[in-house]
Amino acid sequence: MTSFGREPGHALLGPYQEGSVLGLTSAESANALLLGIVEATSSGPHVEPLAAAVARLITEATATDVCFVHVLDDTERSLTLAGATPPFDQYVGEIQLPIGSGVAGWVASHREPAVIVERKEEDPRYMPIPALRGTDYTSMASIPMESGPSGLVGVLNVHTVRRRQFTDSDLQLLGVIGRLVAGALHQARVHRKLEARERAHERFAEQVIAAQEAERRRLAGDIHDGISQRLVTLSYHLDAAGHSITADPEVAVEQLGLARDLVNLTLDEARAAIGGLRPPVLDDLGLAGGLASLARSVPQFEIELELDDDRLPEHVEIALYRIAQECLQNITKHARATLARIRFRVHRGTAWLEVIDDGVGFDVAPAPSVDPHSPGYGMQSMAERAELVGGRLRVISRRGSGTTIIATVPLAPSDADAPADA
């Protein structure tokens, strides 16, 4: 076993050791390979097609049997197979190696080439991957793909069935290829991240629009079914009072009294509709004050409060307030609870809202309910509100054991410290 690199137990490979060398026997073949690499790196901004083209070009030009292109993933803690020559191209995207694991992982962590001429299973760095059939190949060279601006981008591996030596010249050429490919792969990775971010923004925008439309439909329904109907009835009472004011004053007084009651009810519904858009209490008292006010509006059961005074960005406060509001409505309608607890705190850059009740509980459904009168329907609504502000909702419940709702929203560093109007 012979290896490249000054590791204990591995001799430094000299330029002219016994055995055949890579197929780059002339300057013309090397130039043709480099030209092909340049053309491949100019073909487009996507990682997998570029890695596949590089693997094919290297095996054709160097007379090796297979080439693997492992690319650093977005976490920068593991390598993902991004390109391979057939038949291994079917495993692209499926094979992952943690940094430091296997020969490619060792190369990524040490940022230097590694060569194994034979008996690779005896090399402590070697880790067999059954899908890639490493035992079918005798010799291999592994090269880091890195450049100054982008740093390490991945690892390039070539394998041969027959025993081969890899000279310093071979490794230098593969290193040049690695540096050429590194810049293009770095740009492709950046492009992939931007595309993923753009898709996430598009999904977020769709969710926001859907939520806005749902709020508009709710408000339109409230106005149509409540305020507008009461105003029509009010006009009837006023007409009746006008017609009766001289002929029958008592009827007129009765109609005016009914009209006054309708005015009060309409004002209450108008305030409720306005509060449905933006709870005014949040502007004055913040989320803690809003939750305390919300608790006072529910007389059906006792509510204990544990509330921090932290102010959050406006959209986060609204989302958490609405989640708490939906929780209390669900408890009132379904739980038959005697006690509920509302806890709000900001801890380690995350806003936490917990609503706990001692009610009858329910079996948490694996899929959202379509019944607007079931607790599962409200849970889906709350989960969507949490997701719209980048958070998540957790539901813990079972029959006879009460229910716990936990909403968590990660905050930007400035959000955790600054007031909502900063």
What does this entry look like structurally?
The structure is a single chain. This protein has 422 residues and is an alpha+beta fold. Helix content is 48%, strand content 18%. The protein is built from nine helices and eleven strands. The longest helix has 77 residues. It starts with 26 loop residues before the first helix and ends in a 5-residue tail after the last helix.
Q: What topology does this entry show?
A:
Elements: H1 27-41, H2 47-62, E1 66-72, E2 78-84, E3 96-98, H3 102-110, E4 114-116, E5 139-147, E6 151-160, H4 168-244, H5 249-277, H6 280-296, E7 302-307, H7 314-335, E8 339-347, E9 350-357, H8 375-388, E10 392-397, E11 403-410, H9 413-417
Parallel strand pairs: 7-8
Antiparallel strand pairs: 1-2, 1-6, 2-3, 4-5, 5-6, 8-9, 9-11, 10-11
Structural class: alpha+beta
Gyration radius, in Å: 34 Å
Q: Order of strands across the widest beta sheet?
A: 3-2-1-6-5-4
The 3D shape can be described as elongated
What is the β-strand count? Answer: 11
Topology as H/E string?
Answer: HHEEEHEEEHHHEHEEHEEH
Strand portion: 15-25%
The tally of helices reads: 9
| Residue share in helix | 40-55%
Q: Mean of the pLDDT scores?
A: 78
The low-confidence runs, each spanning 5 or more residues with pLDDT under 50, are 1-21, 367-373, 417-422
Distance between the termini: 65 Å
What's the story with the biggest beta sheet? Answer: 6 strands, antiparallel
